[in-house]
Amino acid sequence: MTPEQALADFLKSVEKRAFKRTVFNVRNEESALDIVQDAMIRLAERYADRPTEEWPMLFQRILSNATMDWFRRQKVRNALFTSLDDLEATDEDSGFDLLEYLQTDATNSGTESAADGAYRSEVMSIIESEVAALPNRQREAFLLRYWEDLDVAETAQAMGCSEGSVKTHCSRAVHALAQALKARGIAL
User: Fold this and answer.
1) Alpha-helical regions (H) of the chain
2) In this structure, are residues 32 and 19 in contact, taking their beta carbons and an 8 Å threshold?
3) How far is CA 85 from CA 78, 88, 89, 94, in A?
4) Does 125 have pLDDT greater than 90?
């Protein structure tokens, strides 16, 4: 396989998760798409010659930095201007499922009743909204650890913080989610 094909395959394998993670962070699909595309371009331009084993962590770090850059630009922009677009309500129904892989679980292949499917869809929507409500660093740590399945060291490297901070952010996120879901009548 050529190096260009290997890079293309890698980017294709991470694009959906990266997009969803970024949408959770910035809460805007268009901005998320721009951020992910910028991160992919940076990886391709600056790190394509690196060993393929390094690409996942490099990409996570680049994506985290690109997201933080977006927040910094937004902060400056919002301090100087008020955009009418920012005042419009966002369409909550245009979101996505955080736990999408649960919907395609092989054990549920066509045997789920309509009521069970509707209930699971409702629960997943609630989980998604509660994850979106987490503070930025908690949400980022939670998604990297439990969605991207990175270990503590990899998450710390991607977030640019200590392993202890990752553990703290994850613990707080899990406790906040458990409380919020329990308050909404969902027992995990």
Assistant:
1) 3-26, 29-47, 55-80, 84-87, 100-103, 114-133, 136-142, 152-159, 163-183
2) yes
3) 12, 5, 9, 17
4) no
**Tokens standing for 20?**
């969803």
Alpha-carbon distance of 46 to 90, in angstroms, equals 35
End-to-end CA distance of the chain: 44
Using alpha carbons, select from 131, 134, 105, 130 the residue that is nearest to residue 120.
105
Q: Which pTM does this prediction carry?
A: 0.56
Give tens-digit pLDDT for 54-79.
999 999 999 999 998 888 888 766 65
Look-up: residue for tokens 């069970």? 116
105 DSSP 8-state letter:
-
Paired tokens of 114 = 């309509």
3-state secondary structure of 83: coil
What are the φ and ψ backbone dihedral angles of 140, each rounded to 5 degrees? -65, -45
For residue 65, give every residue at least 6 positions away whose Cβ sits within 8 Å of its Cβ, in sequence order, or none.
160
Q: How many angstroms separate the Cα of 18 from the Cα of each of 6, 35, 40, 172?
A: 18, 9, 10, 23
Higher pLDDT, 98 or 30: 30
In angstroms and rounded to an integer, the radius of gyration of the C-alpha atoms of the chain is 18
